[in-house]
């Protein structure tokens, strides 16, 4: 049964990880209609200034340090947890990512809903099979990000525990390749093509994913919050269209004339395509076609590379 989106207008919204590629446009969008509080360590003055210029209130805190969260207002209505640490140090990354989500939920236990953004990187590699929410979990990203998948799995576990113990309405959304006008995986592939670098792909080709455009994930956030329950709603959160690395690189080539050089490597990230049935039933399908999204990205970030006849 589809849910009806919550109205975030005038609400007090806490967004963690606000300076990252994924969350930054979320801050910019919702600061126009809500009282947004943006939480990060803010070690760089320019990051603080950028967030404040968007109209959000800055909170300098570390999720791994529960005492620092005393700066978070106690009357937060909704929490969007985008924060992630990938230092490679297991002790700190588990404290920041897993214990951190527990610290945050305890501080915001009276929130109307808590939305935790996880990743499809929690799934065990299974070739081109579509991963459902009940598919086996595994250490998918170990080669490139040693602590990432394990930290994400641990964070989901802590999130569920605290939600159950304190009856906090919660949604866990497993993100698949978010991208937009400010960057993403496809843009990095374009830069590699421009520099003549090899793009590593798993030999079990094609390598499928479900790219999720920023317009879609911003539109769906009020629905994800509406889907939150104390029992915890866990769902795959990616684009309704399945597309491979090979396909989007071919399209970038069509737009720019640049040619991809693929190199097969069994240690490269393999397919991580997801079953979006539960997502579409609950919050509806996504709308941005992946070709439109990539074209818009390049028009914004590298217009000089686009062919005039493309």
Describe this structure in words.
This protein is of the alpha/beta class. The protein has a domain at 12-180 and 211-239 and 272-287: 3-Layer(aba) Sandwich (Rossmann fold), CATH 3.40.50.720. The protein has 9 helices and 13 strands. The strands form 4 sheets. Strands 3-2-1-4-5-6-11 form a 7-stranded parallel β-sheet, sandwiched between helices. Strand 5, helix 4 and strand 6 (170-175) form a beta-alpha-beta unit. The N and C termini lie far apart (41 Å). The mean pLDDT is 96.
Topology overview:
Elements lengths: L11 E5 L7 H7 L4 E6 L4 H9 L3 E4 L17 E4 L8 H18 L5 E7 L28 H19 L3 E6 L2 E2 L5 H10 L3 E4 L6 E2 L2 E2 H13 L6 E5 L5 E2 H12 L4 E4 L12 H7 L6 H12 L9
Parallel strand pairs: 1-2, 1-4, 2-3, 4-5, 5-6, 6-11, 7-10, 8-13
Antiparallel strand pairs: 9-12
Helix pairs in contact: 3-4, 7-9
Total of helices? 9
Helix fraction, binned, reads 25-40%
Order of helices and strands: EHEHEEHEHEEHEEEHEEHEHH
Task: Note poorly predicted spans.
Answer: none
Fill in the CATH topology of the domain at 12-180 and 211-239 and 272-287.
Answer: Rossmann fold
**Apparent shape:** globular
Strand content: 15-25%
- Main sheet specs: 7 strands, parallel
In brief:
This protein has helices at 24-30, 45-53, 90-107, 148-166, 185-194, 214-226, 245-256, 277-283, 290-301; strands spanning 12-16, 35-40, 57-60, 78-81, 113-119, 170-175, 178-179, 198-201, 208-209, 212-213, 233-237, 243-244, 261-264.
